[in-house]
Design brief:
two-stranded antiparallel sheet; about 40% helix; mainly alpha
Length: about 350
């Protein structure tokens, strides 16, 4: 009895293990069609409707999906493979099934100026590691970003070059150079985007066109003039040079040191307006506005009345003088004579 029970237990365990780990061979009446490029498998075998409507519908669908997936994996293992970073990878072929798209495929981006130059000179892009050795801190640090290696912005002492002005602030000079580099990179990026979308680049001075017009040259000269410390105040004008229109007005500011009484009075006026409960009212402006509104209303009423009289007067009829054409009686009998004004 004990031996039989042990054999039964082992047989049951083997059956359970076999059910868990089914074989990789799957038998089908019709072979599946595969498209490894899209990882697709087409099963054309007929399905019995009784299995779909039965109680074990979920089990049937699960087993069907498992078998088809196993066949697809078997097909993938037939492809050439390679090892990438201790992982076996299969090289998928080009897909053969055309899948519909809602929108057209995106067009490739046009190359930038640097990409064109690199292709012309044969410069290949090299992948750099993210970590580099920092000699100052004696540790591995990031190449870019926060806590990067060789971070010159954290230096508290900068050596002044031999040809530089000893009174010049080297920290401010370094910050200014960095801002200029960032601005230049951003400008080049926007130029690449505009060139890709075929948009004219808005630029001050000469625009990047093969031939500049007279107006663009004049604008370039004007921009070069005002790009001085005196904003072009002491710059000589060219012969027969015309001044540009709509160049803007220079704002005028009050002097910092001068008449303090006027400034005091302005501040008091502002405080008076802010502290008063009643709003400040300009009587003259309010009266003029009221008079304009009354004039507009009277004009609109006159226009309406004039239109009605005009329609009545234009009506053609008999016996109404000249407006009606021919009258019934002799001249003068079709209307009353005008009243004579007598003396009082």
């Amino acid at each position: 009895m004990a031996s039989c029970s042990i054999e039964d237990v082992l047989a049951k365990a083997e059956r359970e293990e076999a059910e868990k780990l089914k074989g990789i061979t799957v038998n089908k009446e019709l072979d599946l069609e595969f498209d490894p490029g899209h990882l697709l498998a087409f099963d054309k075998n007929q399905i019995d409707n009784r299995d779909l409507k039965g109680i074990k519908r979920e089990d049937f669908l699960r087993s069907l999906a498992r078998d088809n997936t196993q066949l697809l994996i078997n097909e993938i293992w037939k492809l050439p493979t390679e090892r990438v970073e201790e992982v076996i990878v299969a090289k998928l072929p080009d897909p053969t099934t055309l899948l519909p798209r809602q929108k057209p495929a995106p067009k490739p981006k046009p190359p930038t100026k640097w990409e064109q130059f690199a292709k012309l000179k044969g410069i290949q892009k090299k992948k750099k590691t993210n970590l580099v050795w920092d000699e100052v801190h004696k540790e591995w640090r990031r190449r870019w970003g926060y806590k990067r290696a060789k971070d010159d912005t954290k230096e508290w002492l900068i050596e002044v070059p031999e040809n530089a002005d000893p009174n010049e602030n080297q920290f401010a000079k370094r910050n200014k150079a960095k801002k200029e580099r960032v601005a230049k990179n951003e400008y080049n990026r926007l130029k690449n985007v505009a060139r890709a979308q075929k948009i004219k680049v808005p630029a001050m001075g000469l625009a990047p066109t093969p031939q500049q017009s007279k107006a663009e040259l004049a604008q370039a000269v004007s921009v070069a003039k005002i790009s001085t410390a005196s904003v072009g105040k002491f710059q000589d004008s060219l012969p027969k040079e015309k001044k540009l229109k709509n160049t803007g007005k220079k704002r005028k500011f009050q002097p910092l040191i001068g008449d303090f009484s006027s400034e005091k009075q302005k501040q008091l006026d502002i405080l008076k307006v802010m502290g008063s409960k009643k709003p400040r009212l300009d009587v003259t402006k309010a009266m003029n506005k009221q008079m304009r509104e009354e004039d507009m209303e009277s004009r609109q009423k006159n226009k309406k009345g004039f239109g009605k009289k005009g329609r009545r007067g234009n009506m053609s009829g008999k016996g109404k003088g000249k407006a009606g054409g021919k009258g019934k009686g002799p001249k003068g009998k079709g209307r009353k004579p005008p009243m004579k004004q007598g003396k009082r």
